[in-house]
Batch of 3 targets.
Target 1
Amino acid sequence: MTEKPKIAMYWCASCGGCEEAVVDLAEKILDVVGLVDIVFWPVAMDFKTEDVEKLPDGSITASLINGGVRVTEHKYMVEMLRRKSKIVIAYGACSSWGGVPALGNLYNTKELISRAYNEVSSLNNPEGASPQPSMDVDGTTLELPPLLPRLLPIDQVIDVDYYIPGCPPTADVTWNALKALLSGELPPKGSVIGASDKALCDQCPLNESKPDKVLIKDLKRPHQVIPDPAKCLLTQGLLCLGPATRGGCEALCVKARMPCTGCFGPLDRVTDYGAKAASFMASIIDLQDPEALEEVVDKLPDPVGTFYRYTLAASSLGGSVRGNKS
Amino acid sequence: MSEEAKVGVFVCHCGMNIAGTINVKEVVEYARTLPHVANANEYVFMCSAPGQDLIRGGIKKNGINRVVVAACSPSMHEPTFRAAMAEAGLNPYLLEMVNIREHSAWVHSHEKKRATEKTKALIRMGVAKAVLLEPLEEFRIRMQPTSLVLGGGVAGLRASLDLAERGYKVHLIEKLPTIGGRAVRLGTIAHSEISGTDLLKPVLDAVESNPNIVTYVNSELEHVDGSVGYFKAKARRNPRYVNAKCTLCEECIRVCPVEVADEYDYGLSKRKAIYLPFKEAHPHIMAIDPVACNKCGECVKVCEPGAINLEEQPQDIEIVAGGLILATGYSPYDPPIGEFGYGRSDKVLTLFQLERLLDPEGPTNGKLAVSGSVPKNIVFIMCVGSLGITENAHPYCSRMCCASSLKNMIRITQLYPDTTIYALYKDIRTYARRDEKLYELATESKIKFVNFEKTPTVNVGQVGVSVQVRDATLQENLVIPADAVILAVGMAPSEDLSKVRSVVKVGCSPEGFIREAHVKLRPVEAPADGIFLAGAITSPKNVLETSMAGSATAAKASTLFSQEEYRVEPITAQVTEELCSGCAICIAMCPYGAISRKTVGEKYRAEVDRALCKACGACVAACPSGAMQQAGFKDTQVLAQVVAISERRTGS
Amino acid sequence: MKQVVISPITRLEGHGKIVVCLDDEGNCKKAYLQVPELRGFEKFAEGRHAEDMAQITPRICGVCPTAHHMASTKTLDDLFKVEPPDAAKKIRELVYSVFMLEDHAIHFYILGGPDFIVGPTAPRAERNVVGVVNKVGKDIALKIITMRKTLRKMNETLAGRAIHPVIGLPGGVSRPVSSEEVQQLKKIGDEAVDFGRFTLKVLKDLILSNKDYVSLITSDAYTHKTYYMGLVDEKNHVNFYDGKIRIVDPNGKEYAKFDVHEYLDQLAEHVEPWTYIKFPYLKQVGWKGFTDGEDSGITSVAPLARLNAADGMATPEAQAAYEEMFKTLGGKPVHYTLANHWARVVEMIHAAERLRELANDPEIMSPEIRKLPTETPREGIGVVEAPRGTLIHHYETDERGVIRKANLMVATQHNAARIALSVDKAARSFIRGGRIDDGMLNMVEMAFRAYDPCHACGTHSLPGSMPFMIYVYDKDGNLTDTVKRNLP
Amino acid sequence: MSESFEPKIVVFACNWCTYAALDLAGTSRIKYPPNFLVIKVMCSGRVDPQFVLEAFRNGADGVLVAGCHPGDCHYIEGNYKALRRITLMKRMLEKFGIEKERVRLEWISASEATRFAQIANEMVEQIKALGPLAPRLEVSA
């Protein structure tokens, strides 16, 4: 019998949602297990990193990696998997663009650590202890992996062949991608697989409700307005990022009457998701008077968290450039 | 694109203009090191014949397929170099000009070293973009030298005549049963003794007799497709129910049982459901008011020539035109009932109604009769509906009301010497050469001018009407008993504009008039090519200004029609349908209405009419999917320039 | 002296590792559980819109995103001082019950359960979901998979998404429940309760019927006398979505019962420089290091703790199962870590019954699901019982509702100290003379896994299968020996 | 150090006003510091915020977006679209830690060559005071 393709699945700085997303394939997962040899999947299967290290380079057909690179071990693991794999696929928002944890890139690691261990109100830490890369505990040296200065999408550490978007990718998107992978019918390297080539509006049931001219006079945050469920949320002043976000989820959030927050990331021709999203959003604010404009923009105190919720690490600047000033 | 980019860089000395500051040798050396650069040359004058030969040679001999010319501003010689490329058989849009004279040599002559460095950077950026340039084809439309004129008032008539006299065919569409518009209803024309009708009669005749003009009265524009050079219009001609056989015997009028207010006299008189709009109506036959008519058929019975057909149906008219002239005019400001007593007393009239009263052909044959008698005390309240003097008033000045009020005051004092006239004004604006004369005349003819800051009030009582005003000069309150109060109302945007805007892609100014391409520089053109704006459709105008505007649009249209074909610069926006989600963000970005939403399968997609696109690129910057791109200024092309600001080798 | 690093593969990249320090005789001197990863949510929450926290914080953990979503949403109610309509609260609790049931189920059958269902002594290769399938049979396995899928789909509809829900807003939920959905829910409600009963039966037939298992569960190695914490309703019954926090001491006496707004008076966090996880403890009792008993402030959470901290269950069948459990295990409080598996099943029944109740409550169809906030936000605190224990969110904002400070006290953290105890105890009792064998590994592994420690929360790794290997270093740090499980 | 530092500033100039103003500066030999690299676009409304961020990423210390005065846009209101985008853009850049002096949106008509020169000098001075941006972008992983 011919050898089944070898598949590895691995996580870095992720929440586990991507693993759950794979489990959500439900009965399909059994098909997958039937078609491939899973050589590495820490969550569900009993294989050791050592075993993977022993495999000849390029012997894994494809590695699906979720989570961004936050600590040194992540770096080691993705580099190792790259060597072992013919194809590396970034699975989910975090490994593709950093995801939510990349919002940490707005601060430096010192700030991240001191907030958690020296500032929060529930602490009782008089001697101001905090995790150390290496410390001596009654004669034993214990080591902790240090945080990297920034959380990185895996393609800033290794060469990535394909991307499966979403926070997390939906079961359908995952399934489409796996089918493409197993059928060998893959698009050019660097492509996004499993999802749509068009923005979410293409899949959104409310797109038809849009007037010819999409213009707004005011911005609203979701808790400030009860939207008309039959009308496009954007035209009601809500920051729905559907127009800038890759389709694939079938507008799950909009169907729950909440605006799209962009977890499927940018489309192929977009270099910086947040800048593009901000550009279209600003474009439709139908005001000419600078003061009036400032007033409306004031209603959005966190443009970065809003427009770069999932893509900060992959943005042009990658995070804060305050340098040492904070 | 498939073939590998081979860039030729041509650096010009421009005599000493460039070479005097910039070390051209060094720059050329540097250019040779750039990715995709096949060769780099320098020459004393690149725009000269030998200079151009270098370029042509580069293309022919060295197989260069991209050209970067580092010289003067593209506004100088871009056409020159494009031509040279075309001659050598290379698409002229594969040229990138780097402006190292105006933008470097001439402004940095004090820092030669750094100017040279900057020049290298500029060329590096130019090359980076050139590598990604794509061949573009000019887009041409066959010109249809015919115009569609919407509106048969002074502006539309003037435009139609001018064009017809130049030999261009005109389709003139008028909603009412007669052409002539509102000016024909003016009792008297300022600085003359004649009425509006007399003034315009020759124009009406000329229009009717001109073979190049096809007039459609009782007609409305329903739909317009296409763009400059080739508009396809659909109009509907509503039934008039009376045809050319009509001899104006007026038997029908006699028997017609229906009587309604005559809009021609602004409601001061009545007419039948079948009527002649006015003495000089064109066409000169009866018309039936479809709203008023009860189809009783009495008129049909008495009509000898059998000119009446109550069964007449609307007709569709199809018109193809290279340009559109919109001349739908204005609507007089219509005061809300009660404003200055309007509608509460027949002693309160608008300026337009006064015009009718003073028209020898008017309802009173020119006799100034207000609720039966000639008024002794007449109070003119100026700026009604203008300068924001009331809540409902427009913010702007209507320009014509001062002059025409004064004109009428003077006429009244001449006709009825013992009337007393009060002119309550916020401001008197009799601008320009001749109108100021009216003001002088008026002040001589013992008219009492009262300037107000606080808007006057009109009290309508059992006994009579009085006007209360505080004289801003004397600082005292006056109560003036009035036999007649004339409200000098201004001009408001025509009620028909919303209909017009639903058919033709034109924008609206904050005041509600149609917006010009440029207030000062392109006052009679709409932003979209081939659409012209005549008369009060863009702002209040008097008869003089309106005919000027009419002629101006005709001139503009002629210039357009004089071309065989209309050329569109190829750097327009284009959408890749496969990537378009139909989010419609782009549509509102376009001031020219060049983008529309079409349905493909179930889904929306954006569509660009290249003929309408002016290549600003606003939709491209807004397009959240990158589906919309501008030829010659694609994201990738501009970004390549941006990335090339750094020395880091890219794309090599 | 020697240092032994036990690295569960799944933890190798920073998801938790165990370091055992040997004395010169090679006996365990001390064992440390290290959780070496931080993502810094508490910091980067700063500057965000408060209302976005309900969608940002679920990204702490994709295993229990609904817990963070609800904790956050309740915190937002408190922050914006807006009381959601009853229908909204019920919809939230409905979603939450669906989630609790589904999350507990995946642990019992796939992640934790195999130890018992297949058996702790069974060959390792069989001790996974496949083994479970073989043991319980295909159709039952399918029943389990289908049940989970149904529940996940339901929450995708009700909450927008099953992973990282979106309906929660200050003052309500974004989406009402349709009548069709209610019909579906009623059906699911009944199925869910059946499923709960069935699971209890599986527990009894396969686990409790087996003397060895029971003695294992009650063995000293898995026993720690700590405080227990959980949410209770006004009747002191277990409640996952709302209520007061109740803490009982190691003797089962009520130690404290308080509103979450007082959590800072009751709880504090201890920091050790050798791990990224923080160790919460009872502030009044104080931090006494890694030791149990009444004098140690170490408290524990999760199913067993919740049942210990409550006087009973709010639903009948769950109450019966609750009583049976305590009767069998010798009365409250139960200190056997492994009893968590049983407690978890009791809670599954509770979740299922609650789900059925709410599905049959006509009010969930009400269109009154939102109140718009009018107050200026300043500070908000909220709590829910996550599957893995008490979860507290605490935000401070400026007047525009932008987060100034955020504090998150996460379920697994509360258990961190007790887990460390278990690990230490297991290591001490099984590492002798540098001899380290499979049995010891199983013990440690099982101790660890019983908590279903979702380090995705404390850090971010999924619970479940944890193969071990051990590196034995000499004092100069040279690798002298390695022990691995499942070597041929 | 910041003495020798010469900021690199990218100018996105609209074809009709600002680009023409730069030409005029040339023909009238108005001197300004050679720190400016001009990129021509047809209208300031074409400037995509992505361009600005990419400019910074590739070593720009400042960016000037310049177009026609309000009301004078060759494309009627392209400059207003630029205004909207840059207004929001600036808010984001602040959060990234990029000082507001580094990004400017100016209306420079075809005749305002001197005004451009004056803005140019001002920007160079301000950005010199702020120091180079590039080092702050480097994060070693």
Note: The CA atoms of residues 49 and 89 of chain D lie 7 Å apart.
Target 2
Amino acid sequence: MTRRVRRWVLAVGGAGLAALLVAACPALPPFGGATHPYGDRVVHESLARQTANTIASVNFDQRAFDTLGELGILFASVIGTVVLLRQTRDERRAAPEPAAVSLPVRRYALIVLPVALLTGLYVVAHGQLSPGGGFQGGVVAATALHLLYLGADYRALENVRPIGLYEVGDALAASGYLVTGFAGLLGGTAFLANTLLPYGTFNTLASGGTVPLLNAAIGMEVACAVVVLLARFLDQAVEIEKESGS
Amino acid sequence: MMSVLPYLVAVWIFLTGCYGIVTSRNLIHAVGCLAVCQSATYVLLLAVGYRDGGTAPVFSDVEPGSRPVVDPVVQALALTDVVVGATVTALLLALVIQVSKRHGTVDPDELSELRG
Amino acid sequence: MNGWTATATAVLALGGGATVWGVATGPLGRRVVAQNLSTSLACPVLLLLAQGYGRPSYVDLALVLALLGPVGTLVFARLLAEDLEGDPPGARAATYAVAVFGATVVIVLCAVAGPGRAMVKLLVTGALLVAGNLVASRALAGGFSGSRHG
Amino acid sequence: MDDPLIVVALLLVAACATAAVAVRDPERQALVLAVLGTALAVLFTVLQAPDVGLSQLAVGSALTPLLLMLSVRKVRRRERGKGRTR
């Protein structure tokens, strides 16, 4: 297909899609409307289970099975990336040149690194109370680790990042989620049903039954997944070269 | 107008992203455009869940029942997808790197010429 | 709509519009500076919104942005260092203006919050915001290659 | 109620998304995408979804730009290396 044909197909298809989408807009519930039947029920149910953050309650309790699906996608895409970006036979590793980083940047990175790690843990730990949770906190903590690459150089990062450990952590966190789900089954209720632990006192760290457990498992899973992903990309961009290329 | 403006913005973002993917001359740019398309879905979902004068259904600092709250279901859907979408972006970028290794180019037009 | 959200709207319309324009057009140097300014403008906006909506828990967003925004800019400073070497971007006036704006917002909000846990969080956010903004703009202006000589 | 704020945030996101598509060089597009991530986070806060905003900030401000820039660097380096051997 030539470029011109492709543009015409795009123009026709795009115009049709645009017309349909715009026609559908007035049929949606009006923006800012007061009827949210599912939302009201979810809030009610979440308060009954002593979970202050309703969104965490949806993710890790009322629709925890959906989150298992998301976990699967996350896990699969990490495996896919690791397989795609492995070192092939015609490639070799070249030690990266040590980077010259100015002193203010280095100091900033070394001061912010622990603060960012702590913030990541805080966001995970308070997931069932305030905005945040495993998904966000995991990414923050994993990104924080890469301040070492930005503030020092790649070798400094490699020293504190035994990649095998993070791969194991990834798998452990995913199975931790499943085990918590099966525990509900053993307890005589349904898979991933939040009946295992007492619901606790509203708005405290230990409230919400299994929500904090699943939240922590997701936090670990996401953090390990991001570290493994970025490690593969950094390897490719910084270290691995084609053998004949240089 | 206000009752459909957010939906129209979501439609605009989605169509712009699609245009970018189809006309892209660089696969990395196309992956970036796909990220733009993804953000359209978040805008649409959150716009559906919004309630005038509402606040977030997070009761760590407000008394339950004291203020109207927005819909938490759509927020939960969007929230997980933001992070999972980023890892899928990473998978696509890994594919692009693989394509560049195998064929030495990331221009989709040159790639289709290679295939014949 | 109250004073806080009105201020946030004004800053978002003017500053946000300017940074989008700056990041989408012009030479590479201007674009990276606009990206840095966008995070350091959005952070005070988020603080103002948290105050305007009466939700102290929204401050977490500003905290995370103050932490990770400069990290994003450092990514660009590191990986675009070769391209930026030719014309090091220096938007000193705009950078300091935004830093002063951020500090002002934090101080005003601290005065409103009064001493306590909320104030500590605000001060940490403000310190990270201003320090991150200045370090990131320094890195953009050639900080990565600066130490090769010493 | 907060209509002007919502409208401004929506228009900002729309402008940013358009710019992200219109900028064709992947490195420069990564810069626009970083700004788009921040604008989206502000929009989500305005729509009272701080959890989603936090997610978007965590992903959009540093992770996605880093992934994109590393891919660009890898692809560039290969193309440059190929040029040298020819």
Note: Chain D has one domain: 3-85.
Target 3
Amino acid sequence: MIDVALVVNGAERSVSVASETTLLELLRDHLQLTGAKRGCDAGDCGACTVLVDGKPVNACLMLAVQARGRSVVSVEGLATQTALHPLQQAFHERGALQCGFCGPGMILSAKALLDENPQPSTAEIREALAGHLCRCTGYAKMIEAVRHAAEASKP
Amino acid sequence: MKPFECITARDAGHAIELLVRYGADARLLAGGTDLLVDIRNGSREPRVLVDLSRAPDLKRLELADDLLVIGAMVTHTEIMGSRLVRELCPALAVAAHSIGAIQTRNLGTIGGNLANAVPSMDLGPALLALDAQLTIAGPMGLRREPLTTVFTAPRTTTLSATELILDVTIPAEGFHKPMAFLKFGLRKGQALALVNVAAGFWPHGSEPVFRATRIALGAVAPTVIRSAEAERFLDQRVIDPESMTAAGEIAAGEATPISDFRASADYRRELIAVLTSRALESAWRRARAEPARKSA
Amino acid sequence: MKRRGRGIACMWYPIGFTVAANASAATVKVNEDGTATVLTGTVETGQGALTVLGQIAAEELGIATDDVHIVSGDTDATPMDTGAIASRTTYVTGNAVRLAAANAKAVLFEVAGKKLGVSPTELEARDRKIQVKGYPQRSVAIGEVAYEAQVVAGRPAIGSASWNPPTVPLDPETSQGKPFSTYVYATQIAEVDVDDETGEVEVLRVIAAHDCGTPVNPMLVEGQVEGGIAMGVGFALQEEIVFDGAGRQLNASLTNYIVPTSLDMPDIEVDIVESYDPTGPFGAKGVGEPTSVPTAAAILNAIYDAVGVRLTTLPATAERVLMAIKQNGSRIASGTSVL
Amino acid sequence: MNTRERHGASVFGNVLEADADMRLPALVPPPAFPIETLVPDVLKQTPAVGQRVPRSDTRLHALGQTRYIEDLTFPHMLHARIKRAGIAAARIKRIDTREAERMPGVVAVLTGGEIPVNSFGPSLQDQPVLAHERVFHRGDGVAAVAAISEQIAADALKRIQVEYEPLPAVFDPLDALAPDAPLVHPPHGNVYASRTLRKGDVERGFAAAYRIFEARYRTQMVEHVSIEPHAAIAEWDANGRLTIWSTLGRITLGRADLSRTLNLPLNRIRVIGSVVGGNFGGKNEITQEPVLALLSKKTGRPVKGVFTRTEEFTATTVRHPFIMDYKTGVSREGRILAREVRLTLDGGAYCSWTETTLGKACILSAGPYKIDNVHVEARAVYTNKTVSGAMRGFGAPQVCFAYESQMDDMARALRMDPLEIRLLNAFDEGSASPTGQVLQSVVVKETLRAAAERFGWNERST
């Protein structure tokens, strides 16, 4: 077993896990944060995407031990007590989500994009979401929702 | 996944000690984007993983006595974003950018990519065209080997079980060299290369001819290869579209692509010819756009 | 060299099962504060059933969509439903929900009629009120009527109903008959660039004009069209399960089975064509499956327009497009012979 | 406070405070917080139909709070995996599960012989829940293991020895039609379903035609690729009552199939549909549910099964590959006088939704066009490959690819604009369909004109 101490959604957490445990299993099974989803277990679908030190990674392809001392943000960490994150609000209001299974991963990659590039072009938004497969929406309203959230948070 | 132990190496030396101690049961864990997939599908069943993510001496990315040094644990995102790489060898930055998707580029490392040694690796052609060398560390100390000799067969290198890649070094001759990298995949996002090619040369003289031509191809042979015949054909030849097209045909002839469920060997040859000449054209456009560069 | 082309394709598609009974049943309970709960045996699989059925019940009861809660997908608690299949949910389940809501409303109208001194047939439900047709000043809040029906009159406003599309069985020899109660129509136009040296096809733009009867929620209709076109692009250019000689799948993973990513998608413009079907709830039909039906044909016709080759086998991978260009470039169709 | 006061008409307006106040906080604080009921928005949303109302379920999707089947866990829950045949056609001579049963962490093993009624299917009930005597494609399940972890269950599968007697297999539908082709489901022939459509007299139509066009079109096998894999949990309780949580899109049919295969009355079965992470026709029928139910019965514990992505490709349904031969006769002006279609569907190992696909493809194959003389022959053929089932469109995308490709060829041959030839032939209100049905609410031409106008089709003539 390995002790993994890390920050998850701003809270210090420490968990003792078998060394082959992935970051995805740590979040879902040990911390009951089931927002990150298991779609393929091979880094193809992006449904397990979380942010590690602000960067999107496939949590199914990262060992929990590699996340020691890092700051992990899952979709459960985006909203505040009173309000959804602007991206969550935009995805909800603009019909960008249908079955919702790929949603959490998409929204986190979009957040990482906006953190680095507050007014992205359509091409940059498409690139940021290219690591996620969605079968319901054809990505159209997701790209539009990201652009809208970027507009809304323009200083 | 099947249970295994995971030990985090303090530095390269410590990692080598662990490789010696655990022998064939141990494998190095870099980004994990290839290794964890192999473990999960059972094609690799290590008992011990040596985690390199905390070894500071594997994260170098700097100019050191006329060599661009890129540590084995530098990620593709860091290569893409490095001002140094973009300025000295932009083709390498383009190659890194073409790998997988943002998530895989944030985790995947240059050392892991090279050690995994799949013939379709996107960094291969660019590094070969830049005459890159590997610094390999083992129990007996360091050795340096040109990339051209490191790869021996699909997913096999000359590294022994107790050696690791310390870093990749790119000689000054490659700096600012007009060069282009092109990749053809079955889709625009998250694509494996059906064919990738890096082509570069120094234009020399008033009526410029090709000098120090490099053409490197991926996914069209058991390993990444240099297209020696095409390079020889171009050297000293006047730079014009016809010679570029001809070089593409020669490169296609030299390669030994396979037929599989993705594409036929004939189609891969077509792509080699087209991509090689387009890469040469793109390099030539880049050369004309920055005439002030020193020519080798 | 990149050569541009455009292609058009139209289609028709039925709503509901082929002839066989495919009923939906539903129950609507108007709670004693005027909100409503709908019980339906269908399942939300991402297509938006919960929202659309909520809007249909709300429309019938004259209340807000958020006033309605849908309980779905529990065989113990919800009435039967043939299922979320065949683009039927809005049309068939929607009709069942509308009829169930109407039956619940009938109870409210009887109670309200007594309060307002008019016959139930004179009443209508709008904006959370039950009012006299043509004289809205005379009205009462739906919550008050629901409360009175349940607590005073002892008749809770609960309605159930089922609906099955009217069809006529097909003659086994000729298939003549009426297999479906209604159909929807659509046209898609694709604009592509074809690289005539690599065969790579890039779909730049798709215009999609779709008939779905009354769009219960236009935003969700657009989502279905955009998702359908994504599936159509994959079907046209990228997706195929490949087998070896022993019946083994060679590309059974998302690395090797290629589906479109956000970078592979064209710009999409959706045009919901004016249409009303009296047999559907408030004139609505359906749109789920038709959205991906014409896409491949439109793209392949655009490839023909761009580089003059007719591919008759899907997917039109870059290799197949290039080989076709190299083979002839001029003959209309590899398979077409003209008698 | 009596309920009258709370719900009285006079207070109706302000009782339903603004939605935002009533909603759960966006970030669910740690447990132990008062859950306030979610009461609707006072804002006017009437009339409801036609409004771009945000979906009622996507706020939870965006927050990551939607619970899919894999997010559910129950006390003492076990994990199941199914061993796949890995051989396309064979007789099962022996299955030895003893070594697997002895593995630490394995709690129960199941094989086909233990399934009360080991056959199901929406029309032909030719599909086993677990293969017992024969294997019909590589994705067939032959045994299942329930263990305390998914990894142990997966490891146990390798310890199950199955002795096969390989049988001749056939993979191409046209090969399967040959008289000497191996039979996939002996004694039945390989053609297991067919349809005929006749309207008018195509020979007379062809005789009157100015030109006749013939072509063959082929479409490939594709997968639904829902991003959520199939998942289900089964719990067989002490009353002999079964509860199934599942990603099924059709729970009424699912309960009926469970009732048949497990020999249980319908009231003893409760199927709870989750929010499904994408269906597209791929999650319309039972797959592992009866297996999980029997493993739960054997262990007295809830049993969860989640398909791997590989199983999504090899062990669930796919779209029918089609081989389509079109012969169409047109007048000089481009009016379609006769159309003859022959469809051959690759059905894969089991019938599944072939009847529905065959029916729709046959009816729709002539296209949305006024054609007096139509003749369609459609048949489905068994092969030892992945099961062709329901997928978005049920044959329509396949036949549309054919008839709209040929439409463009005819337009070019007659030097007509592809838009014009379609407008010339398209249905009008009241047109008769190939099955003789008088069509109502017909807007084909409106969609053609709307798309052409928005695209700017006529700005550039071909």
Note: Chain D has a mean pLDDT of 92.
